[in-house]
């Protein structure tokens, strides 16, 4: 804590100014705090510095640290904890009740989330003026729930600062049911309140929680327990609070991933929910934690204070040489959401390395291959252009369009801040309910005038409708049906299959070959892809499905959101492959003759 009369706001200012190094989502939460100080009164919000200070004073006055480098010292909150506690207990609604009813705390390992939540639990059952308050520590199983609860028990049994050997338990301020590690309930006699651990499978009749604490949410297989306890919180009057704590989840840990993404959107203002608070500590997308230690503190805000930096250095040294250790380290220590359903490319750093600025004027005269991933009228359309130079080096630009109709709903469903991205030039919002194919056809026509367009590649499911649209805008096109068929006049349209099957290669392109070519170009740094936030979203959502023959496709059913830009890029890159002279070899299809 600082000496400021408002250390919560002091922390936010120091983060936003850059004095405290923090990642994207912590910066967003701090900006939200500062913005609401200025404009929150319009929504009936106010920040009560006295209530925040009261909560902040409680921890070092009543608890000593029970483990680690600070063991035996008063429980002075770390800077990041000060922001969390001050925010949760300082912000108020117009009626005086606490603003936040739901909180998400996500950090790397070893940042003392569990002791913090345990201490908050003791504060809420005994020192917030609520009679017969109920607090619960929840988890997948009772043993996991008892980890957080055990921290609360240890704090109650630790000496009170400046009170000799007196503890909350020895003074009778709390009664702990159970001996040693078998403690199962904390009672506060003066208020008739209780705090106990409970497994998600346990049944409990009519809970009336003032506080619910969930730990290790990334380990939860379903959100049934969270939904049950959230419903209990939502129907409580007064100031109930649910706090969920976790390490960054792997991409396939759906329960925590969905929650984390919701709180990310709240922090960044995509979703407005005045009852939700988050502190999400991750390194930023362009950080390189295996090369640069300075970014570690973004995911590990206690680093060098209560968490030794040597612990991380040792871990990183090992992880550099063991792939599985590297993935675990990226996620658990640096907040990178990798996992079995993680980034579609084996080397995400290679993907980042080929993102950059392109200059379209310099590409004029080069062969240009267009590819279109059309929307179903009202979602997202992506048009990719791939230019190929004489050395087979590629440059790719993708344009995105969506519609105004249903935009707010789709922002929530797709987890994309379309409005913000449109202002930054990453996507165009059409002022209509649907994206008319003639609009897209006109964009293609414009490209054929400006560039040396070889062909347009399209999903077979949409080719007939799109050819009709081209006719309506006066764009002459013809559909390529194979080398033995006569060429037409105008723009050549080639269909591109979307699955893993390799078939009819004489008259269509196939996704396995296109993905293979794009992957090779990325890994060999032989491609430049225009940086675009929509492309970032599509790439992070993409999941590859590979069949028994080793053929890959982008799996839209398993992908976690929009991937249209990745599909169109793969098709454009696949189409750009130089034509071979003479008879085509069938080695690519696994046949050993030509």
TrEMBL record:
- What residues does the Terminase large subunit-like ATPase domain cover? 80-247
* Origin: domain of life: Bacteria
Instruction: Tell me which residues make up the Terminase large subunit-like endonuclease domain.
Output: 271-576
Q: Which InterPro entries match?
A: P-loop_NTPase, TerL_ATPase, TerL_nuclease, Terminase_largesu-like
* Coiled-coil segments on the chain, per record: none
Q: Which GO terms describe its molecular function?
A: endonuclease activity
Per the UniProt record, one Pfam family is TerL_ATPase
The protein's name: Terminase
Which species is listed as the source? Answer: Oryzicola mucosus
């Amino acid at each position: 804590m600082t000496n400021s009369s408002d250390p919560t706001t002091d922390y936010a200012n120091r983060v936003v100014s850059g004095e405290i190094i923090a990642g994207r989502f912590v910066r967003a939460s701090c900006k939200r705090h500062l913005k609401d100080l200025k404009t929150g009164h319009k929504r009936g919000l106010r920040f009560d510095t006295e209530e925040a200070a009261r909560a902040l004073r409680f921890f070092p006055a009543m608890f000593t640290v029970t483990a680690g480098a600070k063991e035996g010292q008063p429980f002075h909150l770390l800077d990041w904890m000060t922001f969390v506690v001050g925010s949760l207990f300082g912000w108020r609604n117009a009626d005086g009740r606490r603003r936040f009813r739901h909180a998400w705390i996500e950090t790397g390992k070893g940042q003392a989330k569990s002791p913090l939540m345990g201490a908050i639990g003791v504060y809420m059952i005994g020192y917030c003026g609520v009679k017969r308050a109920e607090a619960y520590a929840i988890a997948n199983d009772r043993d996991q729930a008892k980890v957080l609860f055990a921290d609360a028990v240890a704090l109650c049994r630790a000496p009170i600062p400046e009170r000799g050997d007196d503890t909350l338990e020895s003074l009778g301020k709390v009664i702990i049911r159970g001996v040693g590690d078998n403690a199962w309930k904390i009672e506060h006699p003066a208020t008739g309140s209780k705090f106990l651990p409970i497994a998600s499978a346990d049944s409990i009749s009519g809970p009336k929680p003032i506080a619910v604490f969930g730990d290790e949410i990334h380990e939860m297989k379903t959100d049934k327990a969270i939904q049950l306890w959230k419903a209990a919180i939502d129907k409580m009057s007064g100031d109930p609070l649910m706090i969920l704590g976790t390490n960054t989840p792997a991409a396939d840990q759906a329960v925590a991933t969905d929650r984390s993404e919701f709180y990310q959107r709240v922090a960044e203002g995509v979703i407005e929910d005045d009852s939700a608070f988050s502190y999400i500590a991750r390194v930023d997308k362009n950080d390189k934690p295996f090369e640069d230690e300075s970014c570690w503190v973004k995911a590990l805000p206690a680093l060098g204070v209560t968490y030794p930096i040597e612990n991380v250095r040792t871990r990183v040294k090992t992880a550099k040489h063991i792939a599985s250790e590297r993935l675990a380290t990226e996620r658990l220590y640096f907040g990178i959401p990798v996992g079995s359903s993680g980034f579609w490319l084996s080397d995400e750093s290679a993907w980042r390395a080929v993102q950059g600025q392109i200059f379209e004027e310099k590409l004029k005269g080069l062969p240009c291959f267009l590819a279109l991933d059309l929307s179903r009228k009202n979602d997202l359309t992506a048009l990719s252009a791939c230019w190929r130079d004489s050395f087979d080096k590629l440059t790719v630009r993708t344009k995105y369009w969506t519609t105004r109709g249903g935009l707010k709903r789709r922002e929530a469903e797709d987890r994309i801040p379309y409005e913000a991205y449109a202002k930054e030039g990453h996507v165009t919002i059409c002022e209509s309910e649907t994206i008319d194919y003639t609009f897209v056809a006109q964009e293609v026509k414009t490209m054929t005038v400006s560039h040396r367009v070889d062909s347009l590649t399209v999903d077979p499911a949409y080719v007939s409708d799109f050819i009709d649209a081209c006719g309506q805008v006066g764009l002459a096109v013809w559909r390529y049906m194979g080398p033995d068929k006569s060429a037409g006049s105008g723009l050549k349209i080639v269909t591109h299959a979307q699955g893993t099957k390799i078939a009819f290669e004489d008259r269509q392109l196939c996704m396995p070959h296109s993905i293979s070519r794009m992957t090779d170009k990325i890994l060999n740094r032989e491609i430049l892809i225009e940086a675009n936030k929509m492309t970032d979203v599509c790439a992070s959502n993409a999941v590859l499905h590979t069949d028994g023959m080793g053929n890959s496709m982008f799996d839209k059913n398993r992908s976690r959101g929009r991937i249209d830009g990745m599909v169109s890029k793969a098709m454009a890159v696949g189409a750009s492959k130089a034509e071979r002279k003479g008879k085509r070899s069938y080695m690519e299809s696994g046949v050993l003759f030509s």
